[in-house]
Specification:
four-stranded mixed sheet; globular; alpha/beta; 11 helices; binds oxa(dethia)-CoA; 328 residues; five-stranded mixed sheet
């Protein structure tokens, strides 16, 4: 008998330290007014010196597990979507596996930038529906403050740290009705961290030239995002054999309020049908969709049976979209 994969628990964690726009005004040539009008962001969270990606990821994961009907021993796969792992080796997923005590789970990381969570969700859906794995823990977690160059005002104001998690398992009602991922490597230079891998090794040259931090061609990413967010949402809706009128809520990647508003407008969705938390957190890359999903659920904005579009884009370039009928 066919089974359907869906979300059976969500959770999130953001660090305590709040960095406001006025804090940034004190260390770089920027203004609260510019940041708010150009991006929608008012503040972001930044890890303490003792925190790394796996710490936030584990807290979000335990939160999601306690909000679901399974226990940690039931988890048989952990995927951590991140571009800011604790270190290149071992995977952050293995560190999380140990921290939360999920001894029965295989564990690996996935790097698809801000689309990472939706890439991981696609993989999880296939494994659950093919009955190879039963309870998959997906985590999007980022310590972007570790790769931000505070001398580059065009990127430094945008990013924040955090983690969101979801458990994907068999569901009786609803579930992941459609999911689409894509990539276009011709845009690989639009958003990158050039050094620290095998091309430009970590050393004096890479440190002096700040090649371990984010470089972005903001305008190119912006144009790509505005087009892709609505196009890919429509494709996911069609793939689910639904129409725009069937959609109850939109949870978009939280990169820029102007990108979100233009996507919502193209989809004909009113403001109260679109979740926005970038005001408080900035862009948390792969963590942004799962954190938004957890908050929207806890705030009662999404409820059992609702049809929700999740959509994101990011470095690579990559993108993903999905229609989920909420099962919890
Ligand atoms: O998750 C995916 C990751 N990335 C994104 O989603 C980013 C997509 N892109 C964007 O969100 C926008 O392109 C940005 C927010 C990054 C930039 O906004 P923009 O409206 O495209 O601004 P711009 O880059 O065209 O810059 C306009 C002006 C420039 O000054 P001049 O040349 O006109 O004098 C910049 O130097 O704003 C200046 N500027 C700033 N001013 C104050 C750039 N950053 C800042 C800043 N504070 N932080």
């Amino acid at each position: 008998m066919d089974i359907k994969a869906g979300i059976i628990g969500v959770g999130s964690y953001v660090p305590k330290n709040v960095i406001t726009n006025s804090d940034l005004e004190k260390i770089m040539d920027t203004s609260d007014e510019w940041i708010k009008t150009r991006t929608g962001i008012s503040e972001r969270r930044i890890v303490s010196e003792l925190e790394a990606t796996s710490d936030m990821a584990s807290k979000a994961a335990l939160n999601a597990i306690s909000n679901s009907k399974i226990n940690v021993n039931d988890i048989d796969m952990i995927i951590v979507a991140t571009v800011t792992p604790d270190s290149p080796l071992p995977s952050t997923a293995c560190i999380v596996q140990e921290k939360i005590g999920a001894t029965n789970a295989i564990a690996f990381d996935l790097a698809a930038a801000c689309s990472g969570f939706l890439y991981a969700m696609n993989i999880a859906k296939r494994f659950v529906e093919s009955k190879m794995y039963n309870n998959i823990l997906l985590i999007g977690a980022e310590t972007l403050s570790s790769v931000v160059n505070y001398d580059d005002r065009s990127t430094a104001v945008l990013f924040g740290d955090g983690a969101g998690a979801a458990i994907i398992s068999k569901v009786e009602e609803g579930g992941i009705l459609s999911i689409i991922n894509g990539a276009d490597g011709t845009g690989k230079d639009y958003l990158k961290i050039p050094a620290g891998g095998s091309r430009i090794k970590a050393g004096e040259y890479s440190i002096k030239n700040k090649l371990h931090s984010i470089k972005m061609s903001g305008n190119d990413v912006f144009k790509f995002a505005v087009r892709k967010m609505s196009e890919e949402s429509v494709k996911a809706i069609e793939k689910a054999k639904l129409s725009l009128e069937d959609i109850d809520f939109l949870i978009p990647h939280q990169a820029n309020i102007r990108i979100i508003e233009s996507s919502a407008k193209r989809l004909g969705l009113k403001k109260d049908k679109v979740y926005v938390n970038l005001t408080r957190y900035g862009n948390m890359s792969s963590a942004s969709i799962p954190v938004a999903m957890d908050e929207a659920f806890r705030e009662g904005k999404i409820k059992k049976g609702d049809k929700i579009v999740l959509v994101g884009f990011g470095g690579g370039l990559t993108w993903g979209s999905s229609v989920v009928q909420w099962s919890i």
